[in-house]
Amino acid sequence: MAQTLDQTAAAQPPREGEGLASFIRSRMVILVPYLWLLVFFLIPFAIVFKISLSQSAISMPPYAPTFDVSAGFSGLLDNLRELSFDNYLWLLDDALYFNAYLSSVWIAAVSTFFALLIGYPMAYAMARAPSSLRMVLLMLVILPFWTSFLIRVYAWIGILKPEGLLNQFLIWVGIIDTPLQIMNTHTAIYIGIVYSYLPFMVLPLYASLEKMDFSLIEAAQDLGCPPISAFWKITFPLSLPGALAGCLLVFIPAVGEFVIPDLLGGSQTLMIGKTLWNEFFANRDWPVASAVAIVLLLILVVPMMFFQRAQARAQEQER
Amino acid sequence: MQGKLSRFNIVSLVFGFAFLYLPIVLLVIYSFNASRLVTVWGGFSTRWYVSLFSNQQLIDAAWVTFRIAVISATVATVLGTMAALALTRYTRFRGRFLFSGMVFAPLVMPEVITGLSLLLLFVAIGLDRGMFTVTLAHVTFSMCFVAVVVQSRLLSFDRSLEEAAMDLGATPTRTFFHVTLPVIMPAIVSGWMLAFTLSLDDLVIASFTSGPGATTLPMRIYSQVRLGVTPEINAVCTLLIAFVTVGVLTAAIVNKRRDLQRQRDEHAALRG
């Protein structure tokens, strides 16, 4: 941390007559949030990792204590010897966990695809709308994001239930005779995820499409390029960074989603967020829950690094 | 070319917004349903709103949630603004990569992981779970959202304004409070509101980090929803939606007005 300070000192020399006070102040801006995130974000992961290696026990907290400082160095060594990958072997052993990981990734991927399918035309139309209308449309996309996630998921229960509004409507119109079973199926989860995360898809797409120079398309069309191939050759490649950011913003949280599969997916659905929750709250097996979390994190590390790279690049562009 | 919408554009907008808004609209409508059967319309009634106000559990939970949201949003706004300043103003410091990673990762981190890891931290350091721990947890993830919002404003900020103020003899502190802060204020306000609603809304992280006596409104709603859809929950949800919508729209209008005012001022100053 001390080195952090030196470096910024070089970047921002204190002004004359300001001296120490301003020097300290400019360091604080970095140091305070840095320390906060270290303590409440990074260290907790180290603890999760450590507990994922310990044995579960019937006590409170329900895991065998590791690092007991009072036992001194030899005690520490004993503790280290007690650490084991048993919980991870357990995850490998039981097909339940493997299937849960697999189906989480699958459900998230399908939902991301549909979010892109619905979100892209929306973002495109928004980017081409007259600028007076654009702000209103943007506001309309953001507004649902402000209203409670839980409420928005809950609203779908009343719609998708067998005696719910969708089935009532379809029967009334005469498309179907018997209610469709949508609740407690994967379809319900897809709908829930696409619905909840759609703004995350639309906003980055809109941001990249809005910057686009649409006269490029005109030029292509003047030169005899049909509109559809102009789209695939010009618009789509230019919007790829936005599409990538949008997909990641939908995919990553969707993999670990708990509320949507729990409320819309019923008890049959396997998703890893739900498995973790049950392991923790129902089985009270904290070490296994921790191991589940670590594996989930490993699955998401690659897309998360993509996300950070995309963020950093977007920043560079704006600079 | 821009400014003209094709039929396909209009259809996709209408379809998209219908998809986004229909469920909420239906929820609001059915909160005024007289019938206890949630999906059968039995006439207009406000009886569920009346019965809400005698539900002490819900009122307690709402009050707990509100206090957590105000405190955590305020702390998160201060920390998030500092983080945004650190990321935009100091482009080179050791550990910057880790720092920016820690700011962006919580945005997409699955809530179950954040919740579990924070809980294990609180247990490890022997902190009793309750309102305080939920507040700490909410500060941690919402400060990152604030940082992103404020950062985007800082990136488009004209640094020459600051330089001008300092050339005219203002100290860095004075410059910050009289030049920088007013300009990024709209972003700070929307950052605060975002943090506030995130906290108001959070179920998963609160469930992990909360303890006895600190049941939040989403936790209460969730446990009732699991038992089935009830008109009373529809009414709570409608009130929450109304609360947030009014807040967001007010802030947007105020921000817009202030922007216009500043533009006019700048214009006047230039013509001098």
From TrEMBL, chain A:
Intracellular or extracellular location(s): Cell membrane
InterPro entries in the cross-refs: MetI-like, MetI-like_sf
Coiled coil (residue ranges): none
Broad class of the protein's primary localization: membrane
Domain ABC transmembrane type-1: 101-307
CC annotations in GO: plasma membrane
PROSITE patterns: ABC_TM1 (PS50928)
Keywords of the record: Cell membrane, Membrane, Transmembrane, Transmembrane helix, Transport
Transmembrane domains' residue ranges: 34-53, 100-123, 135-157, 188-209, 230-255, 286-307
Gene Ontology process terms (BP): transmembrane transport
Membrane topology: Multi-pass membrane protein
Gene3D superfamilies according to UniProt: MetI-like
Entries under PANTHER family matching the protein: INNER MEMBRANE ABC TRANSPORTER PERMEASE PROTEIN YDCU-RELATED-RELATED, PUTRESCINE TRANSPORT SYSTEM PERMEASE PROTEIN POTH
Family: Belongs to the binding-protein-dependent transport system permease family. CysTW subfamily.
Name of protein: Putrescine transport system permease protein
Organism: Aquamicrobium aerolatum DSM 21857
From TrEMBL, chain B:
Cited PROSITE patterns: ABC_TM1 (PS50928)
One Gene Ontology CC term in the entry: plasma membrane
Topology relative to the membrane: Multi-pass membrane protein
Places the protein is found: Cell membrane
Family: Belongs to the binding-protein-dependent transport system permease family. CysTW subfamily.
Domain ABC transmembrane type-1: 62-254
UniProt name for this protein: Putrescine transport system permease protein
Keyword flag Isomerase: no
Membrane-spanning ranges: 12-32, 61-85, 97-125, 131-155, 176-198, 233-254
InterPro entries with a match to the protein in the record: Bact_Polyamine_Transport, MetI-like, MetI-like_sf
Gene3D superfamilies: MetI-like (1.10.3720.10)
Gene Ontology biological-process annotations: transmembrane transport
Keywords on record: Cell membrane, Membrane, Transmembrane, Transmembrane helix, Transport
Highest taxon listed in the record's lineage: Bacteria
